[in-house]
Amino acid sequence: MGVIIGLLIIAVGAFCQSSSYVPINKVKEWSWESYWLVQGVFAWLLFPLIGSLLSVPAGSSFGDLLALMGSNAKSTWLTILFGALWGIGGLTFGLSMRYLGVALGQSIALGTCAALGTILGPVLLNAFFPEMGALQSLTASVIIGVVVTLVGIAIIGVAGGMKAASLPEEEKKKAVKDFNFPKGLLIALLSGVMSGCFNVGLTFGADLHLAGTKPLFASLPATMLVTFGGFLTNACYCLWQNAKNKTWGDYAKGNVWGNNIFFCALAGLLWYSQFFGLSLGRSFFEAGGTLDTLAFCILMALNVVFSNVWGIILKEWKGCSRKTIAVLVCGLFVLIFSTFLPQFI
Length: 345
Description:
about 75% helix, single chain, mainly alpha
């Protein structure tokens, strides 16, 4: 029963993440770089900070947590470093949806992220801290789970290729204004590779929590460090874009501040919910077990499922043949199956 509860919590977080780009459509009169930076303040700084505060046990303080991070400087800086690399994936993630749409863009990027994030975490942890024996977590069950997830992603990719080949250019543009399958595919793959660094960062920061921290909140301090690294990367790029495009005036538009701050905050909260849910959900799994190792992969797979649900709602698959839709649905079922597969191996 505990496993089901854990999976349901992760699923709720995945649904929230997949919905996080909907409020962005309500932002008015701001350029991309302006609203991306502001929502990032909420998604990658404020809410992760609040989450890490929840991890501090009674009798301790946030200062104690910072002191612990300082005394484990190598793990702390590696966690931030991989967060910064993940930030590059976050930047290209938005471009993948620009050229492929919410459904297909998230599917390819998050699928690559799921596989590499799961595998690279233990591999790189073993390279820096071989005494921890991190490679032992990459069991046959974990590898099979990742492979099945990739199969589901590949099937959805096939559906995307069929969509690109079958729809006239006018229909593609109606659903996704800048649709470009070859260009979008390359960007989505790059995004997935870099985005996988998020789980690598979580792996390096797994022990950066105070003694007595509830298992529910154990990974939230590491999440804060990863998102802080990602914020640095994104903030530098967005501020550079503000200067390049002369869009500093966006922040002076007082008439839209209330509206834009609200929807940026909502987007940030929905985005952060996936990793808050991941921390809570993993506490119901056996520590170091197959589901615990695959938790990030499961989250990404469910993100893909829900992003395609949004893709259908937003009519990104409108006009496709029944065969294309059947292939898409098949891929979604494979992804859903991959979240339960470890229980049967």
